[in-house]
Design a protein that fits this description.
By secondary structure, the chain is α/β, with parallel strands linked by helices. It has eight helices and six strands, in the order E-H-H-H-E-H-E-H-E-H-H-E-E-H. 41% of the residues lie in helices and 14% in strands. The radius of gyration is 18 Å and the shape is globular. Bound molecules: 3-methylbut-3-enyl trihydrogen diphosphate (2 copies) and magnesium ion (MG). Its EC number is 2.5.1.-.
Length: 236
């Protein structure tokens, strides 16, 4: 599939949804108001990604390092995830979206963990866009958990391959992201998909996440389509 200007479409887009706090501060609002505003545009971005022909969309919503924030903000973010699931799951299910969770459910309250699991189970057979929510996700933790699995399963040293590790990451079965988008102008990976994004293209916008619109997604995709991916090889 190609963009209107003839470029390739990324099969998997991963987004570091950043800048909610600064968006709120600019408006004299509490940080949580920024987080709430940030979830409002997810529906539009999911629809747009689907329209463009993207098959996998991953959203980074809460990192393993975000536990270091004040507990009121952490609690608020947990509540926002819970509300998001309540509000959007049926709608996503109707759109044939398959939900996935990346990261550890352990650490969330049992109620929230169950809610996430139920949404994942409900939509598990859907065949449309896969929407992966990285919540309590850390790339290093993901690798640690994969290695623990290998050891627990008694996998021998000579059977430890890139494929064996990939198959035990929380993204197992998903293709690597082709394009990683970060909003709010920061230029770092912040422990997001550090294994999977080894050869992803990066696109950064100064726009804060609550202001991110389908047109920004189009800009990212169309720039992606013009890039040359060499994977260590040479130009054609
Ligand atoms: C991203 O927005 C959302 C999370 C990390 C949970 P931030 O809360 O990081 O917003 P800034 O970076 O402080 O503006
Ligand atoms: C990354 O944003 C995590 C999410 C968007 C969920 P942060 O705002 O937590 O990252 P740093 O601390 O600026 O690197
Ligand atoms: Mg931030």
């Amino acid at each position: 599939m190609t963009t209107p200007d003839g470029g390739r479409i990324p099969n998997h887009i991963a987004v570091i949804m950043d800048g909610n706090g600064r968006w709120a501060r600019q408006r004299g609002l509490p940080r949580l108001a920024g987080h709430r505003a940030g979830t409002e545009n997810i529906r539009a971005i999911v629809n747009e990604a689907h329209q463009i022909g993207v098959r996998f969309l991953t959203l980074y919503a809460f990192s393993t390092e975000n536990w270091n924030r004040p507990s009121l903000e952490v609690q608020g973010l947990m509540q926002i995830l819970s509300d998001f699931i309540d509000r959007e799951t049926q709608n996503l299910h109707r759109q044939n979206v398959r939900l996935r969770h990346l990261g550890r459910l352990q650490g969330l309250t049992p109620l929230l963990a169950r809610k996430v699991q139920q949404a994942v189970d409900l939509t598990g057979e859907n065949t449309g866009l896969t929407l992966a929510i990285a919540f309590n996700y850390g790339g290093r933790l993901d690798i640690v958990d994969a290695v623990r699995d290998l050891v627990a399963q008694g996998v021998g040293a000579d059977q430890i391959t890139e494929e064996a590790i990939s198959a035990r990451l929380s993204t197992a079965g998903m293709p690597d992201p082709d394009l990683v988008i970060r909003t709010s102008g920061e230029r770092r990976i912040s422990n997001f998909l550090i294994w999977q994004a080894a050869y992803s293209e990066y696109w950064v916008t100064p726009v804060f996440w609550p202001d991110f619109r389908p047109e920004h997604l189009h800009q990212a995709v169309s720039e992606y389509g013009r890039r040359e991916r060499r994977f260590g090889g040479l130009s054609e």
